[in-house]
Amino acid sequence: RRHHPSPRQQDQRSQRPAPAKSTILPVSEFKKMTSASRFPGKEERNAMQKAFQKKKEEEIKASEERKTRMSKIDESHRKNPVLTRLELKKQERDKRVVERAAALKMEEEDEIKQLNQLIGEAHCQAARDVQLQEHRRLQKEQAEGERRVHEMLKVERQKALDAADKMDEKRKQQRIRGRNEIQEQIQQNLVKKQAEKEVKKEEGKQLREQQEQMDLEDLRALEKKREETKLLQDEIKRINAESIDAKKQRKQQEKLADRTEAEYNKKKMQQEAEHEAEQRRIKKEREAEIKRLGAQQKRAADQKAKQEELHTRRIKEAKDREWRRAEVQRAVKKVEDRAVMEKSRLKQIQDKGLSMSKEVGRQKAQFDRDLRVLRQRVAKDQEQQERKQQDARRHLQAVQQQMQEEKLSAAEKRRELLKETGRQQEKAQLKQKQIQDLKEKKLKDLRATRVPEKHCQLVERRTKNRGL
């Protein structure tokens, strides 16, 4: 029994593409295909798009009508399952129409359009040389554009480098100016301290001369008192038995003076120990600060200047301490001398009764006044020394804060410059990647158009040779 193919199979066979054969086209047909392969203008594209859209809508409308008819036929078939031969043929024909409409709808997909375009270009292989020339021209323009982009990026990079060099030079000048200002301030402080040292030296000299004059007067008075004491020794021996009470009172006064002197010496030694400990602490802080600042500026010069300053201050402080110690010793000696004289005087006035007690009270008050003045002088010296140390610490903190602010500002400017350079590099890399992707896509599309491989290789080789 012979098998008869169905109409659908016949339609599918009729739609199969014929095997490719070499075809020789006439000149008129070749020109027609060449003109058809050119890229249409904007108005032509709009007209073609409108016509295509209209045709598409008509086909979709016809497809919907066919679907409606097929639905009705299917409904009728469900109600009347027995179909005639004509109804079967009509059903198959309508089915083919629906499939054809679906195929036409698929033709509107972008991928199918690209595929149809590639198939159409396959029939125009004879006109590919013209299109290759156009493609080469586009590549040349693209290469020129990339070259201009590279030149622009190169100019921008050079500008960024120039700006960075200018900023480095500016920061260098700022550091130099800051270092010069600090050195100038240190020099001014040294000059000022030297002047203060000279003034204090002159004042100390005057005080020593005054003290020497006072000591000379006290010595003369002491000699006079010794002579008087020698004259009164006989009388003192006579009244020793009667001066027991006066001796007891004198011993109490001596104990009081010794206790006061011991307390003063103890407090003075404690103050000197605290002062020396504070000086050692300040010395350690200064040395640590000098070591930290030395890494940023000229360590040797700054270290030497600060060591000289510290050495000068130590010498001055040592001289001040020596002068104050000498002052205390002279004051104590003066008090002791006065106490000795008062002892002699008490011996002389033991027979005077009430007048002797008044004199003792007066001498005690004078001793208390001298001791109070001496303590005030020591406290004033300590207060002045503390103020000087506070001024030095404030000045050092101000210099450190200024240097820290300059360091933070320079670091922030460097970070901003690095960020801007990174953004420029990322922008250039992104643009270069987009261009490279576009080139690869164009080369891939060129191979997909069934252009002979030798032409594709030629384009790729020329692209690489030009460094695009």
Automatic annotation (TrEMBL):
Pfam family, one: TPH
Name of the protein in question: Cilia- and flagella-associated protein 45
Biased composition (Basic and acidic residues): 54-78, 158-171, 193-212, 240-292, 299-313, 336-350, 378-394, 404-449
Annotated InterPro entries: CFAP45, TPH_dom
Keyword Magnesium: no
Similarity field: Belongs to the CFAP45 family.
Region Disordered, annotated ranges: 1-82, 158-212, 240-313, 336-366, 378-449
GO cellular component: motile cilium
Keywords on record: Cell projection, Cilium, Coiled coil, Flagellum
Location within or outside the cell: Cell projection, Cilium, Flagellum
Organism this protein belongs to: Salarias fasciatus
Domain Trichohyalin-plectin-homology: 106-453
UniProt KW Coiled coil keyword: yes
Signal peptide as annotated in the record: none
Chain coiled-coil ranges: 98-125
